[in-house]
């Protein structure tokens, strides 16, 4: 599917979890729209592969090993991007991990890890990049949350759903703190995306397609387009918003 026409020429973007799936698509959209892109993932090899496929010369793309559970990884990524390109204009907190564990089987360690990946990551990233962006007088942060954080989702577990709800709240909290500084923080809340199909049984896929009023999963390119809108100059009036993209599964 062709990308919508956005122009991010001259802007510097960091995408987390960009080694595959939605994050990869987001990185591809920003790169196609003229941005320099920090392609980061906990899987350094996957980040490298995406960055190389976008720009074998590595001038407009930088692969970064970034585990979103670690504040020092965000700080290092910020420093590397600033050293290469002068500043970071846009951060997309896309990395996430859904483990489908029955509620009584969730251990304390697993609960904490899922919260660290899906919620604490948003806190750490906003903490690190809001200061940098505030100093620049401009910035866009977009957090990828989930329908699971609004109504429990279709196949999500308790820890994942709760963490995504927290990520939505953090988007509002930082948006409020930063309002008027030139920095905006917003979120998107997708329902089932086709990138999840590989992790679902045929039965689950059919059940979800039946549940969604428009009868299908969302495409990664549709998610990326919503992210780009919130990250664009024209998106400046979105402050603490959460865009729902769920094919009609949940309306508010
Ligand atoms: N797929 C869906 O149906 C769906 C629905 C709603 C929301 N979401 C959210 O959208 C985002 C992208 O989903 P996706 O389907 O592309 O997922 P995916 O599993 O295909 O890709 C996630 C990427 O994040 C990376 N990652 C995992 N843990 C990480 C960590 N600790 N630090 C850095 N990177 C890490 C993985 O290596 C992978 O490259 C996630 O936040 C997910 O929770 C997905």
Write up what this structure looks like.
This protein is of the alpha/beta class and 252 residues long. The protein has a single domain (12-245), classed as Rossmann fold, CATH 3.40.50.720. The chain has 8 helices and 7 strands; from the N terminus they run E-H-E-H-E-H-E-H-E-H-H-E-H-H-E. The chain has a 7-stranded parallel beta sheet with strand order 3-2-1-4-5-6-7, sandwiched between helices. Helix 4 (108-136) runs parallel beside helix 6 (158-178). The longest helix has 29 residues, at 108-136. The mean pLDDT is 97. The site of nicotinamide-adenine-dinucleotide has 28 residues, from helix 1. Nicotinamide-adenine-dinucleotide (NAD) is lined by residues 16-17, 19-23, 41-43, 46, 66-69, 94-98, 117, 144, 146, 190, 192-193, 195-196.
